[in-house]
Amino acid sequence: MKRTTLAASAAVALAWASQANAQANELTLCWAAWDPANALVELSKDFEAQSGIRMKFEFVPWPNFADRILNELNSGGQLCDLLIGDSQWIGGAAENGWYVKLNDFFDAEGISMDDFAPATVYAYSTWPKGTPNYYALPAMGDANGWFYRKDWFNRDDIKAAYKEATGQDLREPQSQKELLQIAQFFQGREIDGKTVYGASIFTERGSEGITMGATGALYAWGFKYENTPGSYDMEGAVNSPEAVEALEFYKELYKTATPPGYDNAYMEQSLDAFKSGQVAMAMNWFAFFPGLYADPNTGGDKIDFFVNPPQNVAASTLGGQGISVVANTDNMDGALAYIKWFAQPDVQKKWWAAGGYSCHKAVLEDPNFVNTAPFAGDFLQAMAGVQDFWQEPAYAQLLLAMQARLHNYIVADQGTAKEALDGLIADWTEIFQDEGKL
Amino acid sequence: MPNPLEAAARATPAPLARRVRGLSDRAIAWIFVAPTILLLLAINIFPLIWTVRLSFTNYAANRPNREVEWVGLRNYSRILTDDGIWANMQTTAHFLVWTILLQVVLGFTLAWLINRKFRGNDLLTTLIVLPMMLSPAVVGNFWTFLYQPQIGLVNYAVELVTGIPASSFSMLGPGGLAKWSIIIVDTWMWTPFVMLICLAGLRSIPDYIYEAAEVDRASKWRQFWTITVPMVLPFLMLAVLFRGIENFKMFDMVVLLTGGGPGNETLLASIDLKREAFEKWRTGYSSAYAIILFVTVFGLASIYVKALNKVKER
């Protein structure tokens, strides 16, 4: 009896010890479920081979990504050791102590933020913004860009019809207004016996879609969140005449140049519309461009890419993320080892080759970089002029207020652009007052 | 032969026997129900009290480091004076009233028709109740396809009947159709539930009452209004209560269909509450919002249950 008890106890202890050891030798990386995540899984096999640490991945679809992961962080969960979190989360994550501050680690390991593109360091790593307090390593550069049916644009009959209709040559749009003109030209046109439409754009209501889409126009018209950065002085900036014009433009684009029923569309719907041959142009994040180029039906020679066209200024909506160490990980050494491994120039080059968007200068400043992919040059151009949404701890409230105001005006036809932006200032003012910042 | 109970009592050591004899029936009953009561207090009453407390603060669950301030009635006054919240309440009321009305009319009619004996009755009943067996997530997704302007069956059917081009309107988009579209889906899904309850009511009416009415030469119409309706009414009212409570907290299906849009056109109070609580993380504010909704549902349900009891007593 005693021997049986002893054996059972030993087995339990052994199981417990091996489980604890397994936990110490594995890392869970959390990110959104999309094409680059699959590339990272492949890339991380090198890290597993070098370190002996087993990598696990938790990928959440974009519409639920913020909900799922922020709930996890809020509840003090230990699901993620490493997190590639959205850029807007960094303020809240830093102030709430969810992310590890990496300055000492960077200094000790000789990782310099000067080796990464400044716009990405500013957007993905620092809090307060622009200060040398780093909570993430720039991991995935991204911006909202455009792609189009090059085969249609090159067809003589279509070019002639466009010339006849507008008096201009059909080409990649050089301005937002030209983009609208081209989209309207294609809207409802018969191509190869099929009705096609102008453009697929972001109009989604629930998470961040319509804000990410409309800011592409707002930034191009020169939109600013504040008159003076850091002052929260929004009157005259958020509702400037340029901002009003940009919002009216986006509404016109939605009303006159998108497929029917396109009133709640984000990344997936945009990709579907393009891949199914419904639209001549589409907006989406650069992260999807490798997959689009590889698509057997609409990729290759049939597709080309362009940066968000300027209007008053050249600007694009920022996407992308940095990689952070979650503060309550039980494998801090392993998580930091992964960051150290990922920061190496050679790994960053492999990351770009695998389909990820490196932010490392060793990749971006390589003279041959623009030739490595048909969208590489556009990516560089976009990253030079990216602008991001508020990265405040209260960003979720700020974002949802903008979602509601924009969707009400653009899709639901309620009020004017000026009223929408005035209302947005009122919403944001209340939020900043609650935050004690006004 | 000695009584076994007496034998057991005699065999019980004296100190223990005294203790056991000291417990009354009521005490023993309490011992049995206490774990359940404690569990209920822990998972129902305590969170409710805690929510009331939070509703007077500016607490944000995602900001553990921020100082929690007592804000008095500010959350309540903000909610009750917010035009957006009142608009959401109206949207909820619109959804509630129309879904219940349609489900009662259609459910009762279906039950009345299916209550007759005919060939294939069982198969037809099974087919009719199929929608309510589906997950709301599945229903939301496939109705999104049915409502799709280019490939959706609904738009195609409308074009076939009216000649209005299918891709010229969107059932879930702008134009005022979205709030009716979600009513149609909910009615499609839950009318069978009302039908089943009505069917139970109809089948509980004894045949001899109708036979007596026949003897008295009461017309079918008169039998319907003086026998069928009054005797099914308590069942029907119960169905209305269930559907009312369910639809007041409707969330999943509408989120999948419209996400509350276009704009705020289908933003039901429950969707708005979820956004405030778990997307904006305004925990104090959303606690006040939840309390207001709870009091509303509780108040309305209490009045309704009293009315239901009166109908039953008749």
Automatic annotation (TrEMBL), chain A:
This is Extracellular solute-binding protein. Belongs to the bacterial solute-binding protein 1 family. Pfam families: SBP_bac_1. Transmembrane segments: none annotated. It is found in: Periplasm. The keyword Lipid metabolism does not apply. It comes from Rhodobacter calidifons. Gene3D superfamilies: Periplasmic binding protein-like II (3.40.190.10).
TrEMBL record, chain B:
It comes from the Bacteria. Its main location: membrane. It holds the Pfam family BPD_transp_1. It is a multi-pass membrane protein. InterPro entries: MalF_N, MetI-like, MetI-like_sf, Sugar_ABC_transporter. The chain crosses the membrane at residues 27-50, 95-114, 126-146, 180-202, 223-245, 287-305. Keywords: Membrane, Transmembrane, Transmembrane helix, Transport. PROSITE patterns: ABC_TM1. It is found in: Cell membrane. Residues 89-304 form the ABC transmembrane type-1 domain. Signal peptide: none annotated. Belongs to the binding-protein-dependent transport system permease family. This is Sugar ABC transporter permease.
